[in-house]
Amino acid sequence: MPENLLEQIETIAKRARSASLSLTGASEEEKNQALEAIAQGLESNRKTLLQENKRDLNAAEDNGLSPAMVDRLKLDDTRIDAMAKGVRQLIDLPDPVGKVIESKTRPNGLEIRKTRVPIGVIGIIYESRPNVTIDCAGLCLKSGNASILRGGKEAEFSNRALASIISGALESSSLPDDAVQLIPTTKREALNHLLTMDDYIHCIIPRGGEGLIRFVSENSRIPVIKHYKGVCNLFIDATAQLNMAQDIAVSAKCGRPGVCNAIENLVVEKSIASQFLPDCARALIEKGCKIFADTEAQSILSGMEVSSAGEDEFAEEFLDLRIAIKVVDSLSEGIAFINQYGSGHSESIITENPGNAEMFLNNVDASSVYWNASTRYTDGFEFGLGAEIGISTDRLHARGPMGLEELCTYKYQIIGSGQWK
Fold it and tell me: Among candidates 138, 47, 60, which has minimal Cα distance to 387?
């Protein structure tokens, strides 16, 4: 690696650490003013953002990216408005920093307060989606963390334009200019070196394909909060309202197939499979979806263009207009299938039986579990968190959409009156 690149990454990390110490003492008003400047910058630089995003879209077309991946990359007026709205939603949320989680007074008179504080410096490694630049920067600022952003080459021009807007907003605010920094290169060597900066960076959050996340997890000296992949399942129970089940299945697969909360497997109880699957499969095929099915489902869908599904298909995050269908004998078998092949992201049951719903909600092992609703709602904005920095499939510290509180840790503050031992 060129020595100047190594030095550049170290300088970014050191500046971020210094900025994080200043951010800890920033007031809620100061942070909100910076966030409003970012929102206004998005709106006033709309033309430039669309021009730079067009450069990325042209490159994506030349490189043969799938339609679903291009959709993840694309910016338009609606998505720019959504980014600005997400930033302003953060302004409306209470500042988590400094909140006392619990307090108690010991017999010796010591008052012990468990108080929420920022993590410090957070590195976010992500691919494709330029809105992540704004979501992560905004969430980190509101929670008092400095952030180092490293986007993918697919969105290089879009990310630079967005980072420029953020830098301008910080320069006009009282917050440190280095509170948000974008790594200026997408070279893998820069990422490798960033992952060794454990003296300055306190947490790494990778967002992207499974390959990227495994690489980061295996090569980082810094604690990693992971979201390996989104193999989400929709289970159709014997008592389901079939029209509702079909609407949810088609929307959850075909609405935005390239996002992590889209379903990849459709799991159907055998007693209603012959009644449900033909119409649902036709609706999916009409949307351009390719269907993989197990032996039972293939028999029901004979005459349709259906491919065979096995372990590889059931475990795959397609991120595309493809879906795998599994027919099971019972709810218990469906839960076992989901716990085997799901990735712990989001799972849903469609049922009119409250007992079956409770069994599913309690026994499915995932960060977000639904009853009669689409998995597509697993999202920080939809959960009222003001977007999210990622959706964690880990079990420690944070699980599911990570909002402001999940970007904080805590410390103990002990107040005495002269106690000594």
Answer: 138
**pLDDT confidence tier of residue 88, bands split at 50, 70 and 90:** very high
The pLDDT confidence band at residue 272, using thresholds 50, 70 and 90, is very high
Name the superfamily (CATH) of residues 3-225+402-415. Answer: Aldehyde Dehydrogenase; Chain A, domain 1 (3.40.605.10)
Residue 68: name the closest of 253, 345, 338 by CA.
253
Which one-letter amino acid corresponds to residue 62? D
pTM for this one? 0.81
Helices (H), 178-269: 188-194, 210-219, 242-254
How many angstroms separate the most distant Cα atoms in the chain?
83
Q: Where are the domains of the chain?
A: 3-225+402-415, 232-377
| Domain spanning 232-377: CATH superfamily | Aldehyde Dehydrogenase; Chain A, domain 2 (3.40.309.10)
**Which secondary structure element, helix H or strand E, spans residue 147, and what is its range?**
strand 146-150
Stated length of the chain: 421
Q: In terms of DSSP bridges, do strands 408-415 and 111-118 run parallel, antiparallel, or are they unpaired?
A: antiparallel
- DSSP SS3 for 268: strand
**Smallest Cα–Cα separation from 259: which of 379, 156, 363?**
379
> Are 3-225+402-415 and 232-377 the same fold in CATH?
no
Listed in sequence order, the residues at least 6 apart from 240 whose beta carbon sits closer than 8 Å to its beta carbon are: 272, 276, 350, 351, 352
40 vs 46: CA distance, rounded Å = 10
Token pair for 43: 């709106």
The total of other beta-carbon atoms located within 10 Å of residue 227's CB is 23
Q: Are 246 and 280 in contact (CB under 8 A)?
A: yes
What is the residue type of 218? Answer: E
**C-alpha to C-alpha distance for 82 and 85, rounded to whole angstroms:** 5
Mean pLDDT, the chain, integer: 93
Residue 396: alpha-carbon gap to chain centroid: 16
- Annotate 82-115 with DSSP letters as a single string: HHHHHHHHHHHSPP-TT-EEEEEE-TTS-EEEEE
Query: Using CA atoms, how far apart are residues 128 and 215, in angstroms rounded to an integer?
Result: 17
| Residue 208 identity | G
Counting residues of the chain whose pLDDT is more than 90, the rounded percentage is 81
List 125's β-bridge partners, or say none. 150, 206
